[in-house]
Amino acid sequence: MTASARPPVCVVGLGLIGGSVLRAAARAGRSGFGYNRSDEGAAAARTDGFDADTDLEAVLRRAAGEEALIVLGTPANTLDELLPTIARLAPDCVLTDVVSVKEPVADAVARLHPTARYVGGHPMAGTSESGWSATDAALFDGAMWMLTTEDDTDSRAWLTVADLALDCGAQVVPASNDAHDRAVAAISHLPHLTAAATAAVGAGESGLALRLAAGSFRDGTRVAGTAPALQRAMLEANRIALLNTLSETIDRLTAARAELRDKGSVEVVVDDGHRARLAYEEMASTPAPSITGVAPGDDGWAAELRRQAHLGHTWQR
């Protein structure tokens, strides 16, 4: 199916990620339109030539009429308001999201729109900027885009959402909701907390410290520049997985403090971190193998996609 023949994309929330989805879909030749709560954001999108409105009900009625793929691009704490409206006005549309946690979103969908043809999503891309002005059609190029792949996932809906991710330039990574949330707690949400702590300690030292700060401080605190409300919404939504990851981190730092105090060394934590960084660099520099031998809709397809994804493989058309 060509991009122009795929369903239109209806993006609810035109911030950094949602707006970039609308841009990337248009770049791929797909039709799309969107909703944004603020007049300013919707007007900015229209100025750039995109079809955007602040009337949620009108946008959702249009989505229903055009059998659009609805993409939720708003924070997790907005779902209790949005999902009942989608269930009422566009109940048959395939539904996905770009929220950075998956179990809370899946629980909200089950509670507020139980008949939804829902496939959760999380593109692993972003910047510290926010709003329509930060959007970029190339944001997802080469990025990993996790798609919910549970045993009861609708395979046709899954393929619809996978096509969007691929059209946006991303690579599709199948995963269960809980495995995703544990993974992003470690590689995305924990770095936000450690960046915040590093920034606070550095700024609290003295003006001299900030004047001397260079690459390691800049890179290690980049995500601390994200709007605090957006960070809190993301981190607090994944609090259970993040608590476990934070506990492991605190244990490692406590052990490093004891080693430094008693032996004058931080060898263990530095060596462990160095090995982990090299492993990441090796994987990041190697093209991901494709998932083979199974297609969505085959018997046991979801479990097999998850199994191969845990080996580092991605799904391709």
What features would you describe in this structure?
The structure is a single chain. With 317 residues, the chain is an alpha/beta fold. It has two domains: 8-175 and 289-309, NAD(P)-binding Rossmann-like Domain (Rossmann fold, 3-Layer(aba) Sandwich); 181-284, Orthogonal Bundle (6-phosphogluconate dehydrogenase C-terminal fold), CATH 1.10.3660.10. The protein contains 13 helices and nine strands. It has helices at residues 16-27, 39-47, 56-66, 79-89, 103-112, 155-167, 177-205, 207-212, 215-220, 228-237, 239-263, 267-284, 301-309, and strands spanning 9-12, 32-35, 52-53, 69-72, 94-97, 117-119, 121-123, 144-148, 171-175. The radius of gyration is 21 Å and the shape is globular. The model has no long low-confidence stretch (mean pLDDT 94).
Can you count the helices? Answer: 13
**SS class:** alpha/beta
Mean pLDDT: 94
Please estimate the helix content.
Answer: 40-55%
Q: Total strand count, please?
A: 9
Query: What coarse outline follows from CA principal-axis ratios?
Result: globular
Distance between the termini: 11 Å
Instruction: Output the strand order for the largest sheet.
Output: 3-2-1-4-5-6
Could you state the order of secondary-structure elements as H and E? EHEHEHEHEHEEEHEHHHHHHH
Strand content: 5-15%
Largest sheet at a glance?
Answer: 6 strands, parallel
CATH superfamily of the largest domain, by name, is NAD(P)-binding Rossmann-like Domain
- Overall CATH architecture of the largest domain: 3-Layer(aba) Sandwich
CATH class descriptor of the largest domain: Alpha Beta
Do you know the CATH topology of the largest domain?
A: Rossmann fold
Q: How many separate domains make up the residues?
A: 2
Rounded to an integer in angstroms, the radius of gyration calculated over CA atoms is: 21 Å
- The unreliable regions are none
